[in-house]
Amino acid sequence: MGAATDVNSKSSEIVHYKQAMKLTKTLLHAGVLILLSTTALASERGRAIYESQCVACHGNPGLALKTPLLHGQERAYLVRSLQAFQLGGRIDQIMSSMNGIAAGLSDTDIAAVASYLAGQDACDVNIEVDFNREGFREEFKAGKDKYMQANCSHCHDSFHHYAPRIVGQKAEYLRLALSQFKAGVRVAPMMATILDSWTDDDFQNVVTYLSGLRLMRACDG
Questions:
Q1: Among positive and negative, which fits the CA dihedral 209, 177, 155, 78?
Q2: Taking a C-beta distance cutoff of 8 angstroms, is the pair 65, 95 a contact?
Q3: Alpha carbon of 100 to those of 23, 105, 139, 216: distances in Å?
Q4: Which of 29, 62, 110, 165 has the fewest CB atoms below 10 angstroms from its CB?
Q5: Which long-range contacts (CB under 8 A, 24 or more apart) does 33-39 make?
Q6: Any idea of the CA torsion for 128, 132, 136, 140, to the nearest 10 degrees?
Q7: Which tens digit of pLDDT belongs to each residue from 164-214?
Q8: Residue 173 CA, distance from chain mean position
């Protein structure tokens, strides 16, 4: 009698264990589906914001403008930039529209569009680099040397101080941004000090180097 009771008790425990495991798996599955659904909705929201308010200046339609390429940019940098435009800590010196656009975005909107852009391929924006032009190779090499000498990679290759990714960035935007930092129109840690001694050739060479690094991407592959 006692042995039969033990067997029945163990059988009941096994049944309860299996039921608990089944319930756990169901809950985990539901949680994953909810997470995927939420992520998909956020991505769709980010895409919608980009296509309705950003692509004209930052996508292929805005290639001729001195606006930055945002595809593949660091998410946290994009969030901080939009917040700065929103609060007036940064003033749009290019199109005079970013402050108004950012002011109309919620925190959720900012997070969504930043995540969307961070996940996009920079090759989708058709920036062309004329590496056959006279002087390109000499400027590229000199720019690489200056970039390394100034230790720009300490921040821009490691995202230190929330510095943006600038490899493969549009040349005209790089040229404008560097001139603004040197003139004090824009402020960031160490930028004014680093650029204070740069010559016009230094600026041109570094811009050629950074924008020319786009050639290292297998965009046609």
A1: negative
A2: yes
A3: 49, 9, 38, 36
A4: 29
A5: none
A6: 70
A7: 999 999 999 999 999 999 999 999 889 999 999 999 999 999 999 999 998
A8: 16
